[in-house]
Design goal:
The complex is a heterotetramer of chains A (646), B (117), C (415) and D (213). Chain C is elongated, with a radius of gyration of 27 Å. Chain C folds into 3 domains: 34-58 and 93-119; 126-238, Sandwich (Immunoglobulin-like); 250-412, Cytochrome Bc1 Complex, Chain D, domain 2, CATH 1.10.760. In chain C, β11 and β12 form a beta hairpin. Chain C is of the alpha+beta class and 415 residues long. Helix content of chain C is 36%, strand content 16%. In chain D, 74% of the residues lie in helices and 2% in strands. Chain D is built from 6 helices and 2 strands. In chain D, β1 (62-63) and β2 form a beta hairpin. Classes of the chains: A mainly alpha (646), B mainly alpha (117), C alpha+beta (415), D mainly alpha (213). At the A-C interface, α3, α8, α9, α10 and α11 of A face α2, α3, β7 and β9 of C. Bound molecules: heme-A (2 copies), dinuclear copper ion and copper (II) ion. One heme-A sits between chains A (143-144, 260, 263-264, 306-307, 309, 325, 328-329, 332-333, 336, 365, 368-369, 371-372, 374-375, 380, 383-384, 389, 392-393, 396-397, 400-401) and C (58, 62, 99, 102-103).
Chain lengths: 646, 117, 415, 213
């Protein structure tokens, strides 16, 4: 009800960090950083998608001639790297940033400036890696860049230099964000928000951050070795010096497998928010959903070598890794069935986010099943490095992660911008994506089982792969159209979508209790949470009475919201206001918010200078200059208090 | 409402960790800890220079001694023994996974070989 | 044989038929992993069928349920708020246990198959050393002291035991119709793989691990032949190079040039065989190759060959003094080992890692400009129209089209 | 409600759900992550142990077949034992510094912070000596697998110590400038946790790299 107080706007000159471009460059507001992540990541998704589409055009028929072999190799390497590190991970990060503080009832993350730093470093790393295109030297070692192909001897060009350094930078971003969110979630939950009352998306974030901070060290080390080998002549992957090429593979997949759960768990979290809302039922088996997240993450550290069944590890290791891999199907299956349980008996509203969420449930299952097929080593010997694997991981990545993230975008767009996305365009987007995605990736199962290796630039005629590839390419064309519709929808709705109000969907969690978009301080009063579904408790306490952690009858959230009954949304008049001027400022409320600052950006620039020095003829003075800028910015940042003195 | 609210805060303090000042050890403890650490280090080096070096006990002895040192520093100097439970989780969980991975890697590269057939 | 076993076999046979037919129905699938032609392939197939069956079951169950839920529980105007169930322990335990059970059904045969297929190969197996190169395959038969490239002959019914090593980066050895792949990881610590081919035919093989620029063009052919054919093949490969041949007549080579690949091969076939080596080369009849094993790679645009015909004898002279000898072995002629052994290159059906048919035209084009023919190869272009120094033997890039045609004719005659 | 919020907003601002400071949670999470970092480095060292094609080697002498040159076993246990002891003592100084800051004892906080930094710097001095003498004896980071893994592992540890010394010096500087009191205890505590962890890593390295052959 904060908005009913039509307090006069505090007059006076605005600080330069409070408006225009500076307000973005110097922001420490998790919501703005979340949006920066969102739009940057979507842009990279388009880039990765264009790369994919060129790949598909090249593979349309036998002996395609659209691109050269060298370019093709760069395309799939950059497609994989872009989609994983610059599209899906940061898209998830967009939600971590935007949503987690809102969901736990906090005003910001634990370390707002570090948060800004994470974003800038991500931006720098992703630009750095793509700059390579301008030098005709995009990375070309495949997204897991096996040794010794990645070493100077076999990849003498700049290509892999860009990859090595770019990946190092991106890793830094994720690690910094990881510590930040772990701290935020442990320490900034609103009063009453026990761990077992946290929204499932926050749980997914929490678990994902552990996966990040515990698995990124592996790739950091693997890539550091490679960097030393390439730049300083060490011997880590130098076969002649006695090195073992499998070292890279083990270190990479020790990271790589947890990474795939880093890519999927946030999507699982989003879907776990969307399904209950549009089923008008609590999530089925909340505790088990939480435990299964933890179990998946934990088991995820014990299966890495299932990517290496063909390298000759011996029967004992093959058996162990085969079985641990299969085990992961159990907690994941529980999630699928509990989602079905959530929908069972519900009152399902097929809004666009709901459609995408259901899309995840159906498509991820297909990818999961082919994953289990991989987990049987003798069978996998026929599948590995064939298009069957390509089919598997696009079903889990596109059918899982992307579907979940799309669901999240449609669901939270109103909270982010205050406006709803168009349902008509949204449904077009969904159905074209659903059809296009199956047309693109389902035939890849057949191509793979029919012997088509992956990462091939051309294939010969008469191999029995033509039809599969025709269909795949046509499917990809449909995906291009679908994605364009999405982009149009996004742009148009941002400008002129219908006003959303606080709670357009009748959702159960507290982020829907505040205006859309939320004021800088999120909650005028930090809410006190007494259940998993505070919003529903408030509106219909008798319904959730049986849900654990929901003592009936209490007013759970101290901010008033519009009521909503199943299938019918009433948007309260008091939130029908443009956010920019609707709420009293933090200052008026006496809320102390972090001061905007440009220092995290400066620190990032220092890092960039250093890395450019390294790649540019190993220019020592430039490397040192960058280091000095970085340290100076860091000191300046750490020695100024986060907030204005009060 | 305000009163109501603040009442929640106290009543609702989380079970997993209380905002409590933890009793930290002091000089009395620290000096003993330092002494023990020094002695262990001396023993380690001593073991290295004796005939034990060529026996099968050498490696296990060293591993145990350094594990003891490790544990002592973590428990007392890093006061994990006295501190909130959550820190124990944040440290020991990852430590165990990391050690397991380290050991499995040594297996996989045949350093602690178990040979099939 | 117990009824139980028979039932299982019937079941597997039925599955094989279903999957093989199902996949083969729409098009010809020469490289399918189904209906494999070795015991290794069968073992893997059995697991794959099991996985497909159980996976299919899960698929039908989950998607069926989902469809049902979506159709049954859609919100309709006036729906009351649904009952707020929040969990059900019995149900949740059930759908934890059922997948666990299914997985147990997968895990047991999986482990059994792992140990079965990774046993030591029988001692009397045919030994084949596979050495991966960027981007071609070297095959050696240490028991017979034979070295060849990109084409592999195996006797039907005899177990073949592969020793897999790489010369540079990691490659992966895969013949889908004969069984799963193994990576070539190390220089001196080989990987192993063995199986017994069951029928006589031509199979395609691929490099399945991304290994750099021309990874796509690192293919090979496998010919499984009856034992006596294999012996003839080995005997022939053991003999020295087939040259000097009765002079390749201009007419022969002229016909070869520009003609369809298979026709060219026929021409080459009719060239009188060399004295010395056995009449029967043991090689697969070049006119009986199935369509999928004859490459269709188009020639690179802009690469032309003006010489009409080549003379093998002149080619032989040229070759001896050419830079080729630094990289290629021709028994008794040249010692190089960087590129494929060319002693019997004429007996092969393809060149360049299975990329082009082995006819005079492609051979000449290859020699003229290998890097254009196959991206990334280290073999330098021989005919870049660089001026020759009179008197001295031509260097790389200096060969005229005529000289190249001569060398091609020579190589082609090395049956 | 907004007006009602005015009063209490300020108090809530510093509310944390566990009652623990953010930085301390973050540093423990960081330490957990560092376990993986050093585990990978140590694992690599152990995996490559004994695989170097050429010497010098850590524990055994080596004669270069090409030149006939003799190389001693490269590791110097007495020197490293001394530096290990120094690092252990720095941890003691660190806990004492922390407890002085908690007490608000400005004299001893300075003394112990300075001692910790000094001991850390001494350790780095030992390491610098060790590295240069290895290079003189013919072991560079590019020489063999042992050189690559050894210098990388101990080098990264050294970099951590360096960062720690910088941190200590900064704290000392603040102490001189405005004095560290009980309200800074948390910052010193966090620094101390980092410092001890670096010490603990060295305990593992000392045994696994130097003592065990
Ligand atoms: C979002 C990312 C993601 C996710 C979630 C997964 C999930 C799984 N993956 Fe996948 N995987 C990738 C991304 C992902 N993967 C990528 C990118 C690669 C390729 C990397 C590269 O080479 O480039 C890969 C490769 C890959 C391989 C290596 C293949 C090879 O190269 O040879 C294997 C092998 O075991 C595997 C297995 C699995 C398994 C068992 C799961 C399980 O977690 C799936 C569990 C889910 C289900 C099983 C469905 C739901 C369950 C039920 C309905 C219960 C009942 C089911 C049964 C009893 C079967 N994956
Ligand atoms: C999250 C990850 C993700 C996603 C979403 C995708 C999405 C897609 N992928 Fe990709 N893929 C990978 C991860 C992903 N992929 C990985 C990890 C690899 C392995 C790489 C390796 O081997 O190293 C891979 C490999 C890979 C291959 C195998 C290449 C090979 O082995 O040779 C293929 C082939 O078809 C492919 C296709 C596609 C297609 C058609 C899409 C489509 O779904 C894309 C859909 C998106 C679009 C079509 C975007 C549309 C763009 C516009 C609308 C532009 C509008 C323009 C402006 C506004 C200017 N991918
Ligand atoms: Cu060799 Cu791919
Ligand atoms: Cu995996």
């Amino acid at each position: 009800m904060a908005t009913t107080v039509a307090a006069p706007r505090a007059a006076g000159p605005k600080h330069k960090y409070e408006s225009g471009i500076w307000s973005w460059l110097a922001t420490t507001d998790h919501k703005r950083i979340g949006q920066l992540y969102l739009y940057t990541a979507l842009a990279w998704f388009l880039v990765g998608g264009i790369e994919a589409f060129i790949i598909r055009l090249q593979l349309y028929g036998p002996n395609g001639r659209i691109v050269s072999a060298e370019t093709y190799n760069q395309l799939f390497t950059m497609h994989g790297t872009t989609m994983i590190f610059m599209a899906i991970m940061p898209l998830s990060a967009a939600f971590f940033n935007f949503l987690v503080p809102l969901q736990i009832g906090a005003r910001d993350v634990a370390f707002p400036r570090l948060n800004a730093f994470s974003y800038w470093v991500f931006l720098a790393g992703s630009i750095f890696m793509n700059v390579s295109w301008l030098f005709h030297a995009a990375p070309d070692g495949g997204w897991f860049a096996y040794a010794p192909l990645n070493t100077r001897v076999y990849s003498p060009g700049l290509n892999m230099d860009f990859w090595v350094i770019g990946l190092q930078i991106l890793g830094l971003s994720s690690l910094a964000a990881g510590f930040n969110f772990i701290t935020t979630i442990i320490n900034m939950r609103a009063p009453g928000m026990h761990f077992m009352r946290m929204p499932v998306f926050t749980w997914a974030t929490f678990v994902t951050q552990f996966l990040i901070v515990l698995s990124f060290p592996f790739i950091t080390v693997a890539v550091t070795f490679l960097l030393f080998d390439r730049f300083f002549g060490t011997n880590f992957y130098e076969i002649a010096a006695g090195a073992d090429p499998l070292l890279w593979q083990h270190l990479f997949w020790l990271f790589g497998h947890p990474e795939v759960y880093i890519l999927i768990l946030p999507a699982f979290g989003l879907v776990s928010e969307v399904l209950p809302t549009f089923s008008r039922k609590p999530l089925f088996g909340y505790p088990v959903m939480v435990y299964s997240l933890i179990l998946i993450a934990f088991l995820g550290f014990g299966v890495w070598a299932h990517h290496m069944f063909a390298v000759g590890m011996g029967p004992i290791a093959d058996s162990i890794f085969g079985i641990t891999t299969m085990l992961i199907a159990i907690p994941t299956g529980v999630k699928i069935f509990n989602w079905l349980g959530t929908m069972w008996g519900g009152s399902l509203r097929f809004t666009t986010p709901m459609l995408f969420a259901i899309g995840l449930v159906s498509l991820f299952t297909i990818g999961g099943i082919s994953g289990v097929m991989h987990s049987s080593p003798p069978s996998d010997l026929q599948q590995t490095d064939s298009y069957f694997v390509v089919a598997h991981f696009h079903y889990v990545l596109f059918g899982g992660s992307m579907m979940g993230l799309f669901a999240g975008i449609y669901y939270y767009f109103p909270k982010i911008t205050g406006r709803l996305m168009s349902e008509t365009l949204g449904k077009w987007h969904f159905w074209l994506t659903f059809i296009g995605m199956n047309l693109t990736f389902f035939p890849m199962h057949f191509a793979g089982l029919d012997g088509m290796p992956r990462r091939i630039w051309q294939y010969d005629a008469n191999q029995g792969w033509d039809v599969d590839n025709h269909i795949s390419t046509i499917g990809a064309a449909i995906l291009v159209v679908a994605t364009l519709i999405f982009v149009i929808n996004l742009v148009r709705s941002r400008r002129s979508g219908a006003r959303a109000g606080n709670d357009p969907w009748g959702a159960p969690t507290i982020e829907w209790s505040i205006p859309s978009p939320p004021p800088a301080y999120n909650y005028a009063t930090i809410p006190t949470v007494r259940s998993r579904y505070p919003m529903w408790d408030m509106k219909a306490p008798e319904l959730t009475a049986s849900v654990p952690h929901s003592p009936a009858g209490e007013k759970e959230v101290t901010v008033k919201v519009g009521g909503a009954t199943a299938g019918h949304i009433e948007t309260p008049a008091d939130t029908q206001l443009n956010a920019e001027n609707a709420h009293p400022s933090a200052h008026e409320l006496g809320i102390v918010m972090p001061t905007p600052t440009i220092k995290p950006l400066l620190a990032t620039l220092g890092l960039c200078v250093s890395f450019f020095g390294l790649i540019w003829h190993r220019h020592v003075p430039i490397i040192i200059l960058g280091g000095v800028i970085f340290v100076a910015a860091l000191y300046a940042w750490l020695l100024t208090p986060l907030e204005p003195e009060h | 409402m305000t009163a109501d609210h603040s009442a929640h805060v106290t009543r609702d303090a989380h079970g997993d960790a209380h905002p409590v000042e933890h009793a930290h050890p002091d000089w009395g403890t620290y000096k003993w800890v330092a002494l023990v650490l020094t002695i262990i280090t001396i023993v380690e080096v001593y073991v290295y220079y004796t005939g034990l070096k060529d026996t099968r006990l050498f490696v296990p002895i060293l591993l145990i001694l350094s594990a003891a040192k490790f544990a002592i520093v973590v428990m007392f100097y890093m006061h994990l023994k006295y501190d909130a439970k959550i820190f124990r989780g944040l440290f020991i969980g990852p430590l165990i996974v990391a050690m397991t991975v380290l050991i499995s890697l040594l297996f996989l590269f045949g350093h602690i070989a178990i040979h099939a057939s | 044989m117990t009824g139980h076993h028979r039932a299982r076999r019937l079941y597997h046979a039925a599955l094989t038929t279903v999957f093989a037919l199902g996949l083969a129905a729409c098009s010809d699938v020469p490289n399918t992993i189904f209906g494999a032609h070795s015991e290794f392939g069968h073992a893997e197939d059995r697991l794959t069928y099991l996985l497909l069956t159980l996976g299919g079951l899960v698929f039908v169950l989950v998607e069926g349920l989902l469809l049902f839920v979506v159709l049954k529980f859609r919100a309709r105007p006036g729906n009351p708020t649904p009952k707020q169930t929040h969990g059900n322990t019995t149900l949740e335990v059930t759908w934890t246990l059922i997948p666990a059970l299914i997985l147990a059904f997968i895990a047991v045969p999986t482990v059994r198959t792992i140990f079965q297929t990774q046993e030591k190969a029988p001692a009397d197996a045919l030994q084949v050393e596979v050495i991966g190169h960027q981007w071609w395959w070297e095959f050696r038969y240490p028991q017979y002291k034979v070295t060849t490239a990109n084409e592999l002959y195996l006797p039907v019914g005899r177990t073949v035991s592969f020793t897999l090593q790489t010369n540079d980066v990691i490659h992966s050895f895969w013949i889908p119709q004969l069984g799963g792949k193994r990576d070539l990881v190390h220089r001196n610590k080989p990987n192993y793989l063995w199986f017994t081919p069951e029928s006589s035919f031509v199979w395609n093989g691929f490099c399945a691990e991304y290994c750099g620029t021309s990874h796509s063009n690192m293919r090979f052919r496998v010919f499984t032949v009856p034992q006596q054919e294999f012996e003839a093949y080995i005997a022939h490969q053991q003999s020295g190079p087939a040259f000097p041949v009765a002079q390749a007549t201009p007419a022969d080579t002229a016909k070869g040039k520009g003609a369809a690949p298979v026709a060219a091969q026929q021409v080459a076939q009719t060239t009188p065989a060399a004295p010395g080596p056995s009449e029967n080369t043991g090689t697969w009849p070049h006119d009986k190759l199935p369509a999928w094993s004859v490459p269709n790679t188009p020639l690179p645009a802009g690469l032309t060959m003006t010489a009409e015909e080549g003379d093998a004898a002149r080619g032989a002279q040229l070759f001896k003094a050419s830079p080729c000898i630094a990289c290629h072995t021709i028994q008794g002629v040249s010692p190089g080992t960087i590129g494929p052994n060319l002693t019997h290159v004429g007996s092969r059906t393809t060149i360049g890692g299975g990329l082009y048919p082995n006819d005079l035209k492609h051979l000449a084009m290859w020699i003229k400009d290998a890097p254009m023919m196959k991206p990334g190869v280290i073999m330098p272009a021989m005919g870049k129209d660089a001026p020759q120094v009179p008197g001295a033997p031509p260097k790389m890039g200096q060969y005229t089209d005529q000289q190249i045609a001569d060398i091609a004719a020579y190589l082609s005659s090395l049956k | 409600m907004a007006t009602a919020a005015l009063a209490e907003a300020h108090d809530e601002h510093h509310y944390t759900s566990t009652g623990l400071p953010h930085t301390k949670i973050a540093i423990w999470a960081f330490i957990g992550s560092e376990c993986f970092f050093f585990a990978s480095l140590i694992a690599t060292y152990l995996i490559y142990k004994g695989r170097s094609v050429v010497g010098p080697f850590p524990h055994t002498p080596w004669v270069d077949p090409a030149t006939g040159q003799h190389f001693k076993p490269i590791l110097n246990i007495p020197v490293t034992s001394a530096s290990t002891f120094v690092l252990l003592m720095s941890s003691l100084a660190m806990v004492l510094a922390h407890s002085a800051v908690v007490r608000g004892d400005r004299k001893w906080s300075k003394i112990w912070l300075a001692s910790t930094a000094l001991l850390g710097a001494t350790f780095l001095g030992f390491q610098a000596y060790e590295f240069t003498s290895f290079v003189h004896e013919g072991l560079k980071i590019t020489t063999n697998l042992f050189g690559s893994t050894f210098f990388t592992l101990t080098g990264f540890h050294g970099a951590h110590v360096t960062a720690g010394v910088l941190w200590l010096v900064t704290m000392l500087f603040i102490d001189f400038k405005r004095g560290l009191g009980p309200r800074d205890a948390i910052n010193v505590d966090v620094m101390a946790l980092y410092w001890h962890f670096v010490d603990v890593v060295w305990i593992a390295i000392f045994t696994l790299v130097y003592l065990i052959q």
